[in-house]
C-alpha cells in the first residue's frame, strides 16, 4: 500500500509539473505577443507601418524659395495630418543672423553654400546639409522695358536705374561674380536685402531693371519681362538644406527635408524653374 501510495503521489507531481511547463510556455508566448503590440502602439505606426509624424516645425528659407516651399509645406501637411510647417522667408544672410542670435528654427534652406557654411561653422547645423537645387540670375524689367535693356552691359548705361541684391546676400554675391566675368561694373540705385525686394522695385516701376533669379521672373508672370544673358552661367547658386541643431522636433525636420529632396520635391522645384544640383 505504501509503495502504491508513493506511485500515485509521484504520478500527480509529474502531471502538475507538465501542466506548469505548458502554462509557462503559453505565458511566454502571450508576453511576446503583448510586447510586440505595445511596441507598435508606442511607435504610433500608421497603416503603412511607418511612424506617424506629429508636431510643428519652423522652416527658415531663402526668399527665392517662397512659392515652392509654400506648396511643399502645404502638400506635406496634407499627407501628414497633425503636422504644422511654419515658413519664414528672408535673405539667406539675414536668416543666418537670426538663427545664430537664437531665433527658433528647425530647418534652414539657403540660396548658397556660403551662408550654410557660416551656420555650420557656428555649430548650428545637425548633420551634413543636402544640396537640393540650383539657380541663376536673369534681368527683370517692367513689361514695357522703358530703358530698352537687352544685355547685361546695358545695365551699366548712363541713366539706367538698376537694382541689385546687397553683396552679402546670395543673389548679390552672384551679381558681383557676373560683373567680373562680363568686365562690366554696375552703379545700382539701391542694394536690397533679398531678391524679392529687388523684384518689388521693378514691379512697382521704381527701377528700370533688376537682377533676380530666373525662378523669380517665372513666378512674377506678366508683371515683369525676363531677359536672359550669357554671363549668368558664371554664377550658378547651389541651394543646401539642413536641420538646425537646436530643433526640438528633429524627426519632423528631417522628414520635411526628405520631402524637399525627394522626387516630389524635385518636381515642384523643376516646375518653378530651378535646376538640379
How are the SSEs ordered, and which strands pair?
Elements: H1 2-42, E1 55-62, H2 66-79, E2 83-90, H3 92-100, E3 107-109, H4 113-121, E4 125-135, E5 137-141, E6 162-165, H5 170-182, E7 190-192, H6 195-203, E8 209-213, H7 214-220, E9 225-227, E10 237-244, H8 250-261, H9 263-271
Parallel strand pairs: 1-2, 1-3, 6-7, 6-8
Antiparallel strand pairs: 3-10, 4-10, 5-8, 5-9
Helix pairs in contact: 3-4
What can be said about this structure in brief?
The protein contains 9 helices and 10 strands.
Describe the structure.
The chain is α/β, with parallel strands linked by helices and 277 residues long. The protein is built from nine helices and ten strands. The chain has helices at 2-42, 66-79, 92-100, 113-121, 170-182, 195-203, 214-220, 250-261, 263-271; strands at residues 55-62, 83-90, 107-109, 125-135, 137-141, 162-165, 190-192, 209-213, 225-227, 237-244. The strands form two sheets. The chain has a five-stranded mixed β-sheet with strand order 2-1-3-10-4. Strand 1 (55-62), helix 2 (66-79) and strand 2 (83-90) form a beta-alpha-beta unit. Helix 3 (92-100) packs parallel to helix 4 (113-121). The longest helix is centred in the first third of the chain and has 41 residues, at 2-42. It is elongated. The termini are far apart.
